[in-house]
Every structure is written in structure tokens, then in C-alpha cells.
Write a structure and sequence with these properties.
Blueprint (H helix, E strand, L loop, with lengths): L1 E3 L5 H12 L5 E3 L2 H5 L14 E7 L7 H9 L10 E8 L6 H11 L4 E8 L15 H24 L11 H15 L6 E3 L8 H5 L5 E3 L5 E3 L8 H5 L5 E3 L21
Parallel strand pairs: 1-2, 1-3, 3-4, 4-5
Antiparallel strand pairs: 6-9, 7-8
Helix pairs in contact: 1-5
The structure holds flavin mononucleotide and iron/sulfur cluster (SF4) (2 copies).
């Protein structure tokens, strides 16, 4: 079983490829019901599941806060502790000590993390000065190279081996210092707004994995207080009409979500 949180499709895409390599492992995508009310959610295990692969993007060199809360609160069946647990995180560059944070979260629930893996994918973070999506060539290169990483990951899951991680430089500072600061001060939906280009098509409203966007004035999006900062709304808008304050001026969009992944009405 692969349990996935994904904002813009990178993690979902990796989970789907890994599932195929492992022989059609079941992929369960977390939505607003699981993420906004994790204490009411049950881990969606099936009888023949032998492992859980916890899959999510890296956010500020740590586990996304919605995933932290899901791991902390989801109802676990007794046999969850007898299963093998793996982490699959996707990142634009590096993960810091996201793997250690994930192991600690599992440990608090009486579960033991077996292996942790990261896959470098196109960057989606655009909400600060200096951060933008990758060039088309760079994104294509990352996607090409991710195939080899996923093949190596599948081998370790099946036959055993070492973690496969790109932690980058100064992982302790990034995860222990920057992550809590980012979580506290940089994860608000307040800066979101739309430009004149918005046609009130409603795609962002229907697609938010946190059900955090409602139709406001003229059917335009109005953001609530349950934002995961996954940036799906920003990246999928067909008019590129969503801004994050003035931090996204002139920046690009990057999404691997396809029409079939998004609700149509
Ligand atoms: C809020 C936020 C924080 C991010 N922080 C990091 C980071 O610390 N390190 C990194 O390499 N990439 C970071 N990224 C990039 C994503 O981890 C990466 O693009 C990921 O593959 C996105 O996965 P998704 O499409 O499944 O949401 C961040 C993206 C977002 C939206
Ligand atoms: S997806 Fe874009 S154009 Fe459609 S309602 Fe949202 S902001 Fe407006
Ligand atoms: S409001 Fe936008 S950034 Fe926030 S959770 Fe929804 S889709 Fe993601």
C-alpha cells in the first residue's frame, strides 16, 4: 500500500511508477477527508498488504505539516506494527533530515521505519524571492533521472539494502531550524489572490486537496484557513491567474497532474 499526499503530482507520479515496479501495489491518495480530519480517518489497509510506503513531498526540509498531523492521528489497525514501513519523499533539490523526522513520527505511533528514499523531481516552490520552477530542460532531466532512482528504490524494497537519500548540505540546520520557522511564518494562505486573468472557471476550487477554496465574489476563489501550501491551485490554474502576494511575479507553473487527475465539475 502506498499512501500518498501530493500537491502538484510529482509524488503521485513517483508513487504510480513505483507501484507498477512492485507489481501493482495499491496507491491510496489522501484527500480533504483524511487530511482535515485525520483523527476520524482509518489507515486504508487491505488484508494482504505487507508494507506501507508513506509518500509525500519535502516541505522546507521536513514532512509537510498535514502529513505530520495525519501520521500522528490516523487510526491504526493493530497489525500496522507488524508491517514494513518505508518513506518515499520527492523534492526539488534535497531533503535535509526529513527521513529522521519521519522515523520519529512513526516511532511515536509504535511503528518502525525500515528504509527512507528521496527522488529529485521538478521544483514547485515559488513563494519566496529566489525560488522559481525549473527550466523545461532541467525539469525533463530530473524526470528522466527519476526513473533510475525509482528502479533502485524498488530493488531495496523487494530485496533489502540501504536508504537512498539526497539530504544536501547542513541537513540539521535546515530541518531543525529552518523547518519550524517556515512552518510558523511562511505557510499561510493569506497572500493568495487572483489577477484580472481569472475567468472564475472554478478549477482551483474543485481541485484543492484540502477543500480550502470556496467561490467568493464573482465566483473567484476565496482561500480559507486549512491551506497545506501544496501550491496545486497556483500551478494548475489554466490562466496563470493566481498570485502569492508579489512573490510570484514573473514566475512559472509546474504540474504533473493530468486532466484525469482533476475533477471536471
Ligand atoms: C511548501 C513547499 C516547500 C518545499 N520545500 C522543499 C525543500 O525543502 N527542499 C526541496 O528540495 N524541495 C522543496 N519543495 C519542492 C517539492 O518538494 C517538490 O517539487 C515535490 O516534488 C513536489 O511534490 P508534489 O508535486 O507531489 O506536491 C517544496 C515545495 C513546496 C510547495
Ligand atoms: S483556476 Fe484560475 S481561472 Fe479558474 S477560478 Fe481558479 S484562479 Fe480563476
Ligand atoms: S489552497 Fe491551494 S495551496 Fe492551499 S491546499 Fe488548496 S490547492 Fe494547496
Amino acid at each position: 500500500m502506498i499512501i500518498v499526499f501530493s500537491g502538484t503530482g510529482n509524488t503521485l507520479n513517483c508513487a504510480q511508477r513505483l507501484a507498477a515496479m512492485l507489481g501493482n501495489e495499491k496507491v491510496h491518495v489522501l484527500g480533504a477527508a483524511d487530511l482535515r480530519n485525520p483523527e476520524g480517518a482509518f489507515l486504508p489497509l487491505r488484508e494482504n498488504d505487507r508494507r506501507i510506503i508513506w509518500a509525500f513531498p519535502t516541505y522546507s526540509w521536513g514532512v509537510p505539516p498535514v502529513m505530520v498531523s495525519y501520521i500522528n492521528k490516523v487510526k491504526l489497525p493493530e497489525r500496522a506494527s507488524a508491517l514494513e514501513h518505508f518513506m518515499l519523499t520527492t523534492c526539488g533539490d534535497d531533503t535535509g533530515y526529513t527521513d529522521r523526522q519521519w522515523r520519529r513520527l512513526l516511532h511515536r505511533r509504535g511503528l518502525a521505519g525500515k528504509n527512507a528514499f528521496s527522488v529529485i523531481m521538478p521544483n514547485t516552490y515559488v513563494c519566496m524571492k529566489g525560488f522559481d520552477v525549473d527550466s523545461r530542460e532541467e525539469a525533463a532531466r530530473k524526470l528522466r533521472e527519476s526513473d533510475d532512482t525509482l528502479t533502485r528504490i524498488a530493488k531495496v524494497i523487494v530485496s533489502g539494502g540501504n536508504d537512498i537519500l539526497v539530504r544536501g548540505s547542513f541537513p540539521w540546520i535546515k530541518t531543525a531550524i529552518v523547518y519550524p520557522w517556515f512552518r510558523r511564518f511562511e505557510m499561510s494562505a493569506t497572500p493568495f489572490r487572483t489577477s484580472e486573468a481569472c475567468t472564475s472557471c472554478g478549477l482551483c476550487i474543485r481541485s484543492c486537496p484540502m477543500a480550502n477554496i470556496s467561490a467568493g465574489k464573482d465566483g473567484r476563489p476565496a482561500w480559507g484557513e486549512h491551506c497545506a501550501l501544496c501550491l496545486r491551485c497556483y500551478h494548475i490554474c489554466p490562466r496563470h491567474a493566481i498570485k502569492y502576494g508579489n512573490k510570484t511575479e514573473g514566475k512559472g507553473q509546474q504540474s504533473l497532474l493530468h486532466a484525469g487527475d482533476l475533477p471536471t465539475e
